[in-house]
Amino acid sequence: MPVFLNKIIDDVTVIVLSAQMLELRFKKPLDDETKMYFQQIKNRCNVISKSIYENADKFTSTK
User: Considering the entire predicted model, what is its pTM?
Assistant: First the structure.
């Protein structure tokens, strides 16, 4: 997999982990809208990662 795709996946992983940490930190005072927002962030990041892995062979590897 090209290096730039790995960097994108790393960045997406940081976003997901940050959302999870915020969700855990403020779990009790979160309203439903905020919970849904965090879930949407995680879902979109999962879609991005899945798409990268599924299409990684279509990119040329450059180091």
Answer: 0.76
Q: Where are the domains of the chain?
A: 3-58
Residues composing the chain: 63
Q: At what angle do helices 32-55 and 3-25 cross, to 10 degrees?
A: 160
The C-alpha atoms of residue 40 and residue 44 are separated, in whole angstroms, by 6
pLDDT digits (tens, 9 = 90+) for 15-47: 999 999 998 888 788 889 988 999 999 999 999
Distance CA 18, CA 37 (A): 13
d(CA 60, CA 2): 7
Q: Fill in the amino acid letter for 57.
A: D
